[in-house]
Amino acid sequence: MKVFGYRGWAVLTALSVMMCISMSLPIYGASVVNTYMATALDWNRKTLGLLTSVNMVTAALLNPVAANIVGRIGIRRSLVIGCLTMVAGGAWLATVATQPWEAVVAFSVLMGMTSAFSGIIPCQAGVAAWFVRRRTLAISVLFAVVGAASFAVISLIGAVVESAGGWRSGWWVFVGAGVVGLLTSLLFVRNAPTGEDAQSSELHWDKAHEAQTTRELSLSKVVRSPLLWGVAFAMLAIASGSAFMIAHSQVYLRGIGISAAAAAFAMPLVSAAMVLGNLGFNLLAASTDLRRAQIIAMGVFVLGFIALANLHTANLTTAYLAVGLVGAGFGAGQVGVMGMLGHYWSTRLFPMLTAIVMLIQTVGGCLVAILAGAYFDAHQTYLPVISVIVALNVLAILGLWAMAPQRKQHKVEPRSTSV
């Protein structure tokens, strides 16, 4: 138990490092390097947007493939594949790339593969394999580390590309990170507990309750479950709001009279609040259950958007409070969705269920970002878009409230001495 606990948390630490490499760098770090690269090579804004869009779509489409790969060859080998694609793509961009198609292949496709094969799918599968009763806490830590790392990544990449090496030196950071990830995967990640670790009281507890759960259901039966689609719709609802914030929050805040500098602080504030939400969800779930905790988290998210819709003057305090509520609600809500997927169904199905939800989230988020911009261009207001986001989240809340999980829900036990 002591050995299992130590190794469980060691594996979680390694998986957190892998999430930072495969998620924070391609999302936050690449946004900086791509901008410098496009400016230096005189590429248009359409090309810059294409790089990000193709990267997101590649990762989303490959997530189900990655889930299948994890089941066939294991978590560690999947992580290795992702790290190798990051090294290859980063090296190409750092040395010879000069054309937009090269950037699309090297960044959008190869690093989209990185996000799929060494990102959320294998990392959460690792968490599910090593943690049972404290799985929600482990997922909270995983997401919180990624959120906190975004600040460091942006600062690091910014400093590197401003150096004598320019934007190409920024891609060398990706190469180095891929190598670090490769070593981390090989040295510290284990697919699942074995031997003495597997005899822990926690895993024995899970075996004892297995007959009372939905853990024996096949994937085909689970995907027909209304509860699964209720959980997926909840993720779509909060992703729609998150996509709006990423794409349009600064323009929205500047439109009500907030200065450009003050509006620019909105996204770092969202990221910080997300970390609090990531960690806070575990405490919330410990006092109730996952489904009710998710409903409360989404309620906070809705309150944040209602506050945003009612900002009529350049009141920074109120604006930042609204942005903070949105960030905290999203941070807690994304952990809640993954926690429900991990606890309500089997560990074996967790990677594929995550892939399905992530695909829905990515496609829905991209559509919302595009449609919100198109609506504003036509009508010069975001308020109906915000109303739709609020309505989607209220519907998701009502859906979760009406659906009972198919297994007896156990509470998270943050004070337990086992993993």
Describe this structure in words.
The chain is an all-alpha fold and 419 residues long. It folds into 2 domains: 205 residues, Growth Hormone, Chain: A, CATH 1.20.1250.20; 190 residues, Growth Hormone, Chain: A (Up-down Bundle). The protein has 16 helices and no strands. The longest helix is centred in the N-terminal third of the chain and has 39 residues. The chain starts with a helix and ends in a 17-residue tail after the last helix. The C terminus is likely disordered.
Explain the layout of strands and helices.
Blueprint: H1 2-40, H2 45-73, H3 75-95, H4 100-118, H5 120-130, H6 135-161, H7 167-188, H8 201-209, H9 219-222, H10 226-255, H11 260-264, H12 266-287, H13 290-309, H14 316-344, H15 350-379, H16 383-402
Helix pairs in contact: 1-2, 1-4, 1-5, 1-6, 1-7, 2-3, 2-4, 2-15, 3-4, 3-5, 3-7, 4-5, 5-6, 5-15, 6-7, 6-12, 6-14, 10-14, 10-15, 10-16, 12-13, 12-14, 13-14, 13-16
Q: Name the average pLDDT.
A: 85
- Taken together, the total number of domains comes to 2
CATH architecture of the largest domain: Up-down Bundle
| Order of helical and strand elements | HHHHHHHHHHHHHHHH
Q: Write down how many β-strands occur, each being a DSSP E stretch of 2 or more residues.
A: 0
Largest sheet: none
Under CATH, the topology of the largest domain is which? Growth Hormone, Chain: A
Given the structure, what is the number of helices? 16
**What portion of the residues fall into strands of 2 or more residues?**
under 5%
Task: Look at the structure and name the CATH superfamily of the largest domain.
Answer: MFS general substrate transporter like domains
Helix content: over 70%
- Assign the structural class, choosing from mainly alpha, mainly beta, alpha/beta, alpha+beta, or little secondary structure: mainly alpha
